[in-house]
Amino acid sequence: FGLSLIVSASALVEVQNNYHETIGIPTAERIWATEQDILAKNVQGSRIIGGELSPYERNAHFGALLINLEGTSQSSVCGSSLLTVSRILTAAHCWQDGTHQATQFIVVLGTRFLYSGGERIGTREVYVHPEYDVQFFTNDIAIGYLPRRATLRHGVQPIRLPRGYELESTFEGQWAVAVGYGKTSDQQEHASLMVSEVSLQVIGHDDCASVFGSDFVKESTLCTNGTGGVGICDGDSGGPLAARGSDRTNYLIGVSSFTVRGDCEGGHPSAFTRVTSYLSWISPQLIHK
């Protein structure tokens, strides 16, 4: 798969498919080559579009994914959310993007870096939603089973799922935080070298569909406002979008899915898989072995 082309009411918008070849692999290679230098120099300023550096303690539910792929020695990278001590949630296209099939996720917890520090747990037991459509990112969600329990500590904690009145909310107008390795600007060649975060405001379904079209934006898609050049970008795939509950705890409302290719700062919406649409699929899988 190459680029998916969408005609909106006013413009032709491109959404990037073939994630691993075009984004994930180059990102992992760049991080590998430069991370030690970044650590040594204590470089600051890497962030997703409009965001700021994110201490891992503030996003203890985030798990980086170092991805092994079938037929190549090259690795790719995505994000994920720790739901329980033995389950992670990510985007389906991180496991299979239409061109590349992953064979293993190495889940990296408790560090903002990909190759340094933290706890690392490999898993080959990943379940993609049975109705995942790789072309239009429909049902772009997958759950990973960890072969051993993650060690919970400062910087490694599960995030809860929506409950109560949150189950009926569209979250329109609400602010939430996205976390990932995405680029900090369109001029940056690949992704950020460290985990970073950005606050985004959820918009309505129709506003998002007017940009991406109804083939991509379903009722199970959640979108955020890109005004001011903020949003997810290349390298954020699979990462969490978390809202703050009335009980002052964070809960997961979205999984980073897609955005406009090559124009992250163009003011376009960011698209996420809406977690509340999949609770009946997710919840039975959270029972520990």
From TrEMBL:
GO molecular function: serine-type endopeptidase activity
InterPro entries reported in the protein's UniProt record: CLIP_Serine_Protease, Peptidase_S1_PA, Peptidase_S1_PA_chymotrypsin, Peptidase_S1A, Trypsin_dom, TRYPSIN_HIS, TRYPSIN_SER
Any one biological process term the GO annotation gives: proteolysis
Domain Peptidase S1 residues, every copy: 48-287
Domain of life: Eukaryota
UniProt keyword annotation of Transport present: no
Keyword set, alphabetical order: Disulfide bond, Hydrolase, Protease, Serine protease
Pfam family, one: Trypsin
PANTHER family, alphabetized: GH08193P-RELATED, PTHR24260
Protein's name in the database: Serine protease 64
Organism of derivation: Mamestra configurata
